[in-house]
Here is the input.
Amino acid sequence: MRNILVVTDESREVADLFQSLKSAINRLKLKQRNISISTDSVNPLKYDIALLDLDSRAWQKKLLELRRYIPVIAFAKPDVKKAVEAIKLGASDFLEKPLSIEVLNEIINKHKKKILTHDYGFDETMGTSPSMQAVYGLIKKAAASESHVLITGESGTGKELVARSIHKWSPRHDNSFGVINCSAIPDTLLESELFGFERGAFTGANYTKKGLLEFSDGGTVFFDEIGDVSPLFQVKILRVLQEGEVMRIGGSKPMRVDLRIISASHRDLVDSIRKGLFREDLFYRLNVINIHLPPLRERLEDIQVLVQHFLEKHSSKRKDLLVKGVSDEAMNILMHYAYPGNVRELENIIEHAISFAGSQQVLPADLPAHMQQTPSQKVTPTPKLRETLLSVEKELIWDALQKSGGNITKAALLLGVHRQQLQRKLKELK
Ligand SMILES: Nc1ncnc2c1ncn2[C@@H]1O[C@H](COP(=O)(O)OP(=O)(O)OP(=O)(O)O)[C@@H](O)[C@H]1O
Ligand SMILES: [Mg+2]
Here is the structure.
C-alpha cells in the first residue's frame, strides 16, 4: 500500500479525520506513504486506492473517472439508494460516515490484493529490478493514453502479458482485446483475418465475416510479431492507422474504426528498416510509446519473486502436496542460469519442479537435468565473437547485395557504409 487519495468537498472535516487517523494508520503498518485530500479526482495514476465522498459535487463523474485506474471505496452519510448507485457505477465498497480507523483498516486490507503496489510487480507482471520498475511506469502511462505502443524484447520476456495489462488498465478495458499473430501468416490469410470479407468475395466465401479490426472497434488490437508482416501488407496496416477506416474484402464502403494498436516484436525493427524489410513510416506510427523488456539474464534480481509467483500460480497442479518454496541450493542454481527462453523458460522450470518435488521445498534434483550441473561444470559456450560477427556481416551484406541486384554502390547505401568500405569487406570475406 502506498498512496491513498481522498476525494471530498468537505476537505476540512475529512482532513481532520484523516489527520487524526494518520498515526493510527501508521501503527497498522499499512506502509502508506501519503494521504492526499482533494476536491477533484486529480491524476489517479499517482495513487493506489481512492476514497470518494459521495456527499460531494458530481461524484458520479469522479467515480467513473477514478475506477478506471484504481479501486474506489465510496463513503457517505447513510443512504441506501446512493450506496446501490455507487456500487453499480463501479465502487468496490461503500462505507457509512462517520469513518473509523477500524473500518478503514478492514476495508483497505480487504482490497489490498487489488491494489497495484509496485514493490513486487504490476498486476500479473512480476519483477523487482529497476528496469521492470521502469516498465511498470510505462504500462501506467500507456494505459492512461490513447497512443499506440510498441513492445520489444526477446521471446518469452512477457510482451503479450504487458500488452494485456495495458488494455486491462486502459479506458478501453470494457471493449475487446483482439490478438493477431502475424508471424508466418501469408498475406491473403492475414487480410481476411484482419479485414473480413463479404459473401461471394472469392471462391469459398459463402458467408460474410467481420474482420478482427472491425470486431475490435472501440477496443485494442494486439499485433504480435509485427516485424514479420510483409512490406506489401505493411502498407495496408499503415492505411488503417492513417485513415481510421477498414473495408471488408469484396466490400464497397469503408467503415470507420476507433482502435488502439499495441504491437510487439522480438526483432530489432530499426535494423529491419535499415535492411528495407520494415517501413519507416509505419514504425513511427506504431512506436509512439516504446516499452522494451530486457532479457531475464540481465535482471537476475527478478528471479526470486518470479519463482515465488510461479510456485503460487502452478502449485494447485499437485493435489497430494503443497510445494511452497525453493531450497537455497536450488535457488542458487536458478540464479546462475542464463535463461535463453527468458521468463517463459523459468515458468516451465518451476512447473516441472512442482511435478517432480518430493517435499514442500524444491530441491536441486527436482530441476531439469541440464540445470543440475554445478556452476563449475556448467557448459558455457566459449564466445567465438569474431566468427559470429563475421557470419552476421556476411548475412547482412548478402541481403543487401540481393536487394540491390548486385550493385555495390546501392548495397553500400543500404548498409550505411562507404562503397570502398564494402569493397574491402567483400575482399576480406572472399
Ligand atoms: N514479468 C513476468 N511476470 C510474470 N509472468 C511472466 C513475466 N514475463 C513473462 N511471464 C510469463 O511467461 C510466459 C511468456 O510470456 P509472454 O507470452 O507474454 O512472452 P512474449 O514476450 O510474448 O514471448 P514470445 O515472443 O515468445 O511470444 C507467460 O506465461 C507469462 O505469463
Ligand atoms: Mg508473444
